[in-house]
Amino acid sequence: MLKDKCNLLLVSLGLMLPFSGTAQKVTPSKEDITSLTALWKGERSPDGRPRVSDELLERLRNISLEEAWGVLRNKGYHNQYEGNWTIIHPDSAMSGRVVTAQYMPMRPDYHDMIKEAGKKDGRGQAGFTNSWPIEVLKDGDVYVADGYQKVVDGTLIGDNLGNSIYAKSKRGVIFYGGVRDVAGLTRIEGFNAWHKGEDPSFIKDMMLAGINVPIRIGRATVLPGDAVLAKKGGVVFIPAHLLSEVVITSEITALRDEFGIKRLKEGRYSPGDIDSQWSEAIRKDFLDWLNKYPGKLPMSKKELDDYLKERNY
């Protein structure tokens, strides 16, 4: 019992990979990942990661980074954003389910253990281990790697691996590190990358230390199965159990802002009226406006009603 608790603690801290007896593992077990993300009560992928719905991921792409960040901040999650990226297609947005990878400076004895563990797991032995996280990707996954901001001799993918990533995930990558062959990556239709720099060099003197372990991406702590929203302004990592609340709260906030701006332009209310807690008259006006909304609301009527009956808008 004590040994099991110690192993789980090591996984949670992201300091080491879990052990089964004395055998090193590349990826935590399904049970370890489930324990690590225990607040999620919904469907899970076969590897244990939370599997948030495709519908919520599609809606997530349409909300702003600021709105998502604000909801997380209010819930006590202050370390979920990282900015200052180089982006291949900066005007595109990406959302998905996170697959994490941890890279470290090369240490031969540790690298040999990882290679041996991968061999026992049936992972490919040809080439470098940066192909291993790609092997686990499924449709809707985003490959998120901590490359400790290494760019020169730290390029985690070029266009060959980029094509493989997109074929498996229909998404792109978020690398706290470098990439190469940017011209080739740009030609992969639908693929995008948030990274810290480009360089013509290959990987050298760095090693894969784990897949689907907790990682740090700049200012953010990231767990396997998090939802991610990546846009021009940066990247927000959202714990799976908070995704639904983040999405609908952000959607309502956007509608509230749209209503407020419209009424201010019409001169119906003063800025003080809109920026403070709304009166009953404004709240009723907002609800009437929602019922006559000229476009398609992003949420269902039931979601909207359930949310609003608990709030004083």
Automatic annotation (TrEMBL):
Is Signal set as a keyword in this record?
Answer: yes
User: Its domain of life?
Assistant: Bacteria
User: Which keywords does this Swiss-Prot/TrEMBL entry list?
Assistant: Signal
Is RNA-binding there in the keyword field? Answer: no
What span is annotated as the signal peptide, if there is one?
1-23
One of the Pfam families matching this protein, by short name: RraA-like
Q: Gene3D superfamilies per the record?
A: Ribonuclease E inhibitor RraA/RraA-like
InterPro entries registered for this protein in UniProt: RraA/RraA-like, RraA/RraA-like_sf
Q: What is this protein called?
A: Dimethylmenaquinone methyltransferase
Q: What is the lineage of its organism?
A: Bacteria, Pseudomonadati, Bacteroidota, Cytophagia, Cytophagales
